Each structure stands twice: as C-alpha cells, then as structure tokens.
Amino acid sequence: MDDGELGDAVDRARSGDRTAFGIVYREVHPMLLGYLRGLIGDEADDIASETWHDVVRDLRGFRGDGQAFRGWAATIARHRALDHLRRISVRPRTTSLDDRTDEPATSQGSEGVALENLSTERALSLIAELPQDQAEAVLLRVVLGLNGPMAADVLGKRPGAVRTACHRGLKRLSERLSGSEEK
Prior knowledge:
Elements: H1 3-14, H2 18-40, H3 44-58, H4 66-90, H5 110-128, H6 132-143, H7 148-155, H8 159-182
Helix pairs in contact: 1-2, 1-4, 2-3, 2-4, 2-5, 2-6, 3-4, 4-7, 6-7, 6-8, 7-8
GO biological process, one term: DNA-templated transcription initiation
Pfam family, one: Sigma70_r2
Family: Belongs to the sigma-70 factor family. ECF subfamily.
C-alpha cells in the first residue's frame, strides 16, 4: 500500500470508519512490531498493544499522510519501548514468559511461513547486535519504511545523522552476512 492509500485510510479511520482502521492496522502493525522486536525483543507484543491504545486514543488529533502516520506511530512505539526499558531497569521481571506466540493464519504453505519466520528472526537478531543508533535507524528506515527526515523526527536527530547511522548499520549487516556465508 502506498502512502496516499494509507493516508486515505487514516483519514477515514479518524472519522470513525472501523473498516478503514482495520486496513491501517493490518498495513502498519507488522512493521511496527518488527521495529519493537528490534528494540526490546520478546515483549514487543505488549508494547505494540500499548502503542495501538495510544494511537486509537489520539487518532482524531492526527494530521498528515501515510508516511507521517507511520512516523507518528513509530514515535509512540519508541516512547512506550523506552518507558518499558526504564521500568524494567528499576523493577526487573521475576517471572518467565511463555515463548509461544500466535501468528495470524496466512495463505502461504507452512514451509514458506517457517522460512520467512526464521529469516525475520535472524534479521532482527543481527540488527539487535548493532549499536543502538544504527539499529534504530535501520529498523525505522528498512522495517518501517520511513524516509530520512521522518526517521530523524522519531529519533530526535538530524536526517543526515540518521542516514549515516542507517548506512553504517546496513554495511555492518552486509559484512556480517558475507562473513557467515563464507564459513
């Protein structure tokens, strides 16, 4: 879905169209979840839920196109993730989490789904090994598809700094992948 179509769906969702909100959610949620998994790992689903709660609460006040909506949602997600990280640093979790996750049904065969999940999991684990500024830049630019200025707004940095961090992160990922293929 291009930014214009997403922007139209957001406008309709702001007016109370539940079907349009479903379209927005299905378009943005997977990318948002990937971004959060790269930031905080296993607890991304919970933080994504908090993010969508805030999005629904504040949607009527949002103004902008599809790209701006992705950036706005990413900013909310980032704030929720940073709040979560601060919270657990003060009061660490003492219970174990259930490793099982329910994935939505797809029309793809189980082999394709398994390969896609493995490659996504591998990519996110490699991104998580990058320095934080590079990891966030790669997640925002590649996973969420934000442009440089929008990613910069989310991170509170200059667009050039975000583009540089993304470039360096992607270069490191490429080097890591090249090194693992040679082995």
